[in-house]
Amino acid sequence: MSDLTRLSAADLAQKLTNGEVSSVEATQAHLDRIAAVDGPVHAFLHVSSDEALATAKGVDEARSKGEELHPLAGVPIAVKDVVVTRGLPTTAGSRILEGWIPPYDATLVTKIKAARLPILGKTNMDEFAMGSSTEHSGYGNTHNPWDLDRIPGGSGGGSAAAVAAYEAPLAIGTDTGGSIRQPAAVTGTVGVKPTYGSVSRYGLIALASSLDQAGPVTRTVLDAALLHELIAGHDPHDSTSLTDPVGAFADEARRGLAGDVKGVRIGVVKELSGEGYQPGVLARFEESLDLLREAGAEIVEVSCPHFDYALAAYYLILPAEASSNLAKFDGMRYGLRVEPTDGPATAERVMAATRGQGFGDEVKRRIILGTYALSAGYYDAYYGSAQKVRTLIQRDFAAAFEKADVLVSPTAPTTAFKLGEKLDDPLAMYLNDVATIPVNLAGVPGMSVPSGLSDDGLPAGFQVIAPAREDARLYRVGAAVEAFLEARWGAPILTKAPELEVSK
Amino acid sequence: MSDFLVDYDDAVARYDTVFGIEVHVELGTRTKMFDGAEQFFGADPNTQVTPVSLGLPGALPAVNGTAVEYAVRIGLALNCTIAESCRFARKNYFYPDVPKNFQTSQYDEPIAHDGWVDVELEDGTVFRVEIERAHMEEDAGKNTHVGGATGRIHGAIYSLVDYNRAGVPLVEIVTKPVTGAGERAPEVARAYVQTLRDMFRALGVSEARMERGNVRADVNVSLRPSSDSPLGTRTETKNVNSFRSIERAVRYEVSRQAAVLDDGGAIVQETRHWHEDTGHTTSGRIKSDAEDYRYFPEPDLVPIVPDPAWVEEIRANLPELPAARRKRRQAEWGYADAEMRDVVNAGAVDLIEATVQAGASPAAARKWWMGELARTAKEQGVDLESLNVTPQQIGSLQHLVDEGRLTDKLARQVLEGVLAGEGDPEAVVAKRGLEVVSDDGPLLAAIDEALAAQPDVVAKIQGGNLGPVGAIIGAVMKATRGQADAARVRELVLERVNA
How far lies B114's CA from each of A69, B76, B131, B197, B217, in Å? Predict the structure, then answer.
């Protein structure tokens, strides 16, 4: 039975379709795995066993009656806790939402439910997705399955760890500055941040509205493509959602898996390497490039000079939008409510007490930054200038995509660092996202695929970036990298991870 | 509480009044500004809500296209320029009736700007008010403060919030500073809001009922020594929600500010509350420069880019506005200027139009509404519109008169019955038996009876003295309870006597 947890989603879906296994068996296998390893990993904040098994049972019954089902029907999935799920606790990793049960589903959850994927539970994350290590969760760290003393990345460390630890074949993440891709890189998994607007944001608890995007977290590129196809599409509830038809991502992934990258122009971003990048991370990146070159891809160097200002612009735009998005958490309508112990419980004082107690330090830090950046007299200098930088970065991308079909870089400058190592140094933590942030600022799609193990034996990621609405290119190139490397290694990267101790 | 006031005439003799008005109108769309929650008046609290209007985590706004169309209609009717592209912005402030703790509004990019509207005063003077902007925004929820003596938050034990109103689409119309109205400023202010109210109704964008809060006005007033002095410091009196109150609030602020200035004092830039019962304003929040709403473009919405062809289509299909319609009606109806002005001031244009449509002549319609009905409305202390009679009923009534089935006097009795709720004129005629007796038989019988009772009269009439005919007619009318046509009775009496 435990073998079922090692299957890719595509393979499991095939076995379900063939009737080799039932969805109840597959779902139970993953619930058992969660019970066995999630104590030390702590990928999940909430496990919804009953609901997942009920969905699985329904799928098996429907299949036995010969009903037409979505190809992924019955394949279990984990959902990041920033995504609202009707009837399931949703906290976004914050104490301020402890106990809140949403009365509605995010659009992507509606799609998952319509396709009948059993939802295993909600995964841990940095509070309101602010962080790169999941250490800022209000409910304890998630641990990297490769080394439990290390961070699983963030903010979506829970989803990445769940997939890496075989607790789920599929997971949903969200990516505002790298929260899908950086955890994928440091856990040896695949993560995709789609084009801004590809996946509806309706029902994602907003961090920074102009940057947030939900996407797939998986162990293979093909699985990511299948999940992306499921959750994408126009949503009238999200004004920023694209009206384009959903691309044939899985077809492109299969094309890449067959090694077809001949003639693809691959641009290496000069500014996303060098100082600050671990030698092992850079070595794995170069090796991946060599494989692409050998397969007939054309490697060119491109320069994006304004990327140097991306981090600074990001840390003005994100806190500004977040300070406004997080204003609604005030104890008046839902979630935590703290009444001051001394003095009158006026609305203003209840709001202050609730926010003072309910938010963690990183959230408060960014709310203060953002409130300052939007203040009269500072707006033009901070928020206004940051928006100008954003435009310059978009132009850098446009120019680079004149020369290349996709751009590539290491996903993160380092492998997973130790828990606690950067907790007291926000700037060092922020620098971990230096290669992923420009992608969000420009709204273009990006993917991280494993590039191998660095000198410290920990996984590193290879980032592929495509022009807006050309997400399909990610799947072709990403799948090719995955195929070439696995051929060299003889097995997927996760087979090299130490086996987790299983609790009885 | 009691401010020192300068007599209004003295105040305007020494100071030049400048005012500005912000009017909020609730649009009569089926659903809210940014979500699918329905909005109609009188629903139970917190029943017209969705995750969006409650500001639940994860919810996102989506713009109501009908609301945008209504805003464009208003902008065009106010002779504004419609923006080629405009955005929403977030106005950030913490208050329990604002579920997201920011209001989605338009800040530096209104959908319509730089227009004007002509306002006609009661004496027919036309005053042009310049419009700075008209922008879209969402309404807040409604707080009810419980336990305090005043109904205000001060002293309350707890507060209830109804989010039915949260997210209701509003258009806010802001005037440029209105100068040059002099002592007539209060009257112009009132007429301006009345003009807008009539315009909203004509445009079909709102029921525009002041008493329901569909139209709300904030009134800014400042004084300066003379019309060439720089603008003085202004106060903003909030929620002045009837025409009469707008006029009174401006008058009050002029008198109050004049007293402060006379005393060598300075006007404090502040929000003031209007008290309908006592007719005065009191100091509210001090508006300081420290008040910072941290506006920034709403990242959850894309810019609104009205298609110029669509705007022109709306312009071409704008309904006739009240002022133009009044001019056209006056010409059609043949009313003198003074007559028309009286009709307008009495709020009878629509009523007369409907009455004419129901078949009455313009003259007859005016006679009813400005005569008998105006008197009744005055007695009852209500608007003409509120009377328990429809233009269709007046049309039918006049039709009965025109057919000779009712005399004027009988018609007034029938109207009494209609107003008393006895039904349509035909029903009242039947029920009260008020129709003119047109059959000569009963009349001759009554005439013979009257002549028999006064034998000397016959001789007088036969002798050429027609004076006593009236006495006979009177007796006949009395016998028929007024239902006889007096002219016919006269004819019959003369025939009888001279036969």
Answer: 58, 11, 6, 20, 19
Q: Are B189 and B274 in contact (CB under 8 A)?
A: no
Least confident of A189-198, A312-321, B168-177, B405-414: B405-414
Cα dihedral angle (B151, B154, B160, B164), rounded to 10 degrees?
70
- Domain B440-498's class? mainly alpha
Of B58, B61, B90, nearest to A204 by CB-CB distance is B58
pLDDT tens string B116-160: 999 999 888 999 999 999 999 999 999 998 887 766 777 788 889
Does residue A315 lie within any of the structural domains? no
Beta strands in A370-416 (DSSP E): 406-410
pTM of the predicted protein model = 0.88
Q: What are the beta bridge partners of residue B90?
A: B104, B296
Contact in structure between A6 and A471 (CB atoms under 8 Å): no
Distance CA A178, CA A314 (A): 12
For an interface test with A, give the residue of B31, B49, B56, B304 to mutate (most A CBs within 10 A): B56
Return the pLDDT at A66.
96
* Closest to B109 (Cα-Cα) out of B140, B81, B88: B88
Catalytic residues of A: 80, 155, 179
Q: What are phi and psi of B296, to 5 degrees?
A: -155, 155
In the predicted model, is pLDDT for residue B384 greater than 70? yes
pLDDT at B287: 62
CATH number at residue A114: 3.90.1300.10
Is A33 inside any structural domain? yes
Please indicate whether, in this complex, the C-beta atoms of B55 and A205 are within 8 angstroms of each other.
no
Q: How many domains does chain A have?
A: 1
Helix (H) or strand (E) holding B22: strand B16-26
Distances (CA, A) of A25 to A49, A114, A116, A118, A165: 13, 20, 15, 12, 18
Asked if B102's CB is within 8 angstroms of A347's CB, the reply is no
Show the domain range for A132. 2-307+391-496
Task: Convert the pLDDT of each residue in B358-381 to its tens digit.
Answer: 999 999 999 999 999 999 999 988
For residue A460, give the H/E element and its range: strand A459-465
What is the C-alpha to C-alpha distance for residues B280 and B10, in angstroms, rounded to an integer?
Answer: 18
Position A350 in a domain: no
What does each C-alpha distance from A247 to A225, A440, A473, B293 come to in angstroms? 10, 20, 10, 42
What is the DSSP code string of B190-240? Answer: HHHHHHHHHHHHHHTS----GGGTSEEEEEEEEEESSTTSPP---EEEEEE
Q: Residue A241, preceding bond cis, omega within 30 degrees?
A: no
Q: Would the CB atoms of B60 and A371 count as touching at under 8 Å?
A: no
The residue among B493, B109, B436, B117 whose CA lies nearest residue B297 is B109
Helix or strand or coil: residue A448?
A: strand
Q: Which residues contact residue A166 at a Cβ distance below 8 angstroms, ignoring those fewer than 6 apart?
A: A5, A6, A30, A33, A37
Residue B358 to residue B76: CA distance in whole angstroms: 32
Phi, psi of B479 (to 5 degrees): -65, -30
| From-to residues of CATH 1.10.10 in chain B | 440-498
Check CB contact under 8 Å for A84 and B57.
Answer: yes
pLDDT attached to residue B1: 44
Among B40, B47, B61, which residue's Cα sits nearest to residue B103? Answer: B61
Pick the residue from chain B with its C-alpha nearest to A208. Answer: B299
Q: Which residue has the higher pLDDT, B434 or A371?
A: A371
8 A C-beta contact, residue A430 and residue A501: no
B51 vs A: CB within 8 A: yes
Element (DSSP H or E) covering residue A224:
helix A221-231
> CB of B59 within 8 Å of any CB in chain A?
yes
Whether residue A327 lies inside any domain: the answer is: no
Q: Residue A181 has what pLDDT? A: 98
